[in-house]
Amino acid sequence: MVKRKRKLFTGVVPIGGPSVKSRRVARKITSKFHELNNKLGDIDSTQTDHVVRVEKIEKEIEALGGRNRYQEASVVTTAHHRTSKWVVSTLMKLGVYPKGSKAKKLNTLEIGAINIQMQQYPGLKVRSIDINSQVGYIISVRKSVSGGCIT
User: Fold this and answer.
1) Whole-structure pTM value
2) Cα–Cα distance, 2 to 131 (Å, whole number)
3) Which tens digits make up the pLDDT trace of 41-92?
């Protein structure tokens, strides 16, 4: 009989639960997060109970693991479903993707970027942004609206 070596528990548990590894779990997290965010957007601030409703939804988001857990789950789902491939194929079908090495690159803004897959295509000059980026090549943008522009 072979004895298994026990892992040493250091007492450190990741905030928001363990990292997401299952595609099924990742899909559930991202779907629920989007659903809750849509509910937040639908709340009418003129209603008397809007503060209570917002707090309730924000608690649900935190129970889900918050934005960081959502982003971990998004990384898992986008690793298997490459939206960048779909975007480039659509640009090619529309006839706007640059052909040839000397063609001018198409300026592209990727909003809500999870990874840098779009940046690998030679015909695109990509600027990737996200509210709370976890990747160095993605510009982290804090959500504050000033004069109609998000900065």
Assistant:
1) 0.59
2) 49
3) 888 888 788 888 899 999 999 999 888 888 888 888 877 777 888 899 999 9
